[in-house]
Automatic annotation (TrEMBL):
Protein name: Phage tail protein
Naturally occurring in which organism (per UniProt): Nocardioides pini
Coiled coil: none
Domain of life, source organism: Bacteria
NCBIfam families according to UniProt: conserved hypothetical phage tail region protein
Pfam families: Phage_T4_gp19 (PF06841)
InterPro entries assigned to the protein according to its UniProt record, in alphabetical order: CHP02241 (IPR011747), Phage_T4_Gp19 (IPR010667)
Amino acid sequence: MATTGSRVDPFMAFRFQVRLDDLPVGGFSDCGGLTVETEFLDYPEGGVNDHLQRFPGRSRQQNLVLKRGIADRDLWDWHDDLVHGVVRFRSGTVLVHDPSGTRTEMQFEFRRALPVKWTGPDLSAGNGAVAVESVELAHHGLERRT
């Protein structure tokens, strides 16, 4: 008798949560920039003409981009403080949950983030869309915990 294998479905991208240190948990509609890229250095070794030696160099992370419907001033105030010389680093977590929302499937932690860009809503009297703000965070490292 054949045994059935266990099915492993990919994680769904719609059930996630973003936490930032002392700010209230944000109901973000989008989270982008979970990217780490390692540059490689090419070295043309003498006498080896069929390829270049390649060595890993520094790794860099992209800025995180968070979008949400405007509900309060917290993100604006954080960026505005930075504009006026008040530097307040915040660390945070991006949690990806299972479809039921009860179990964390993936957890990314970022450290010492600063808001480098705040974008306000596109306003139009001709539609009933939600006013959405975006904040871009530069950070000092991204780690996957689970």
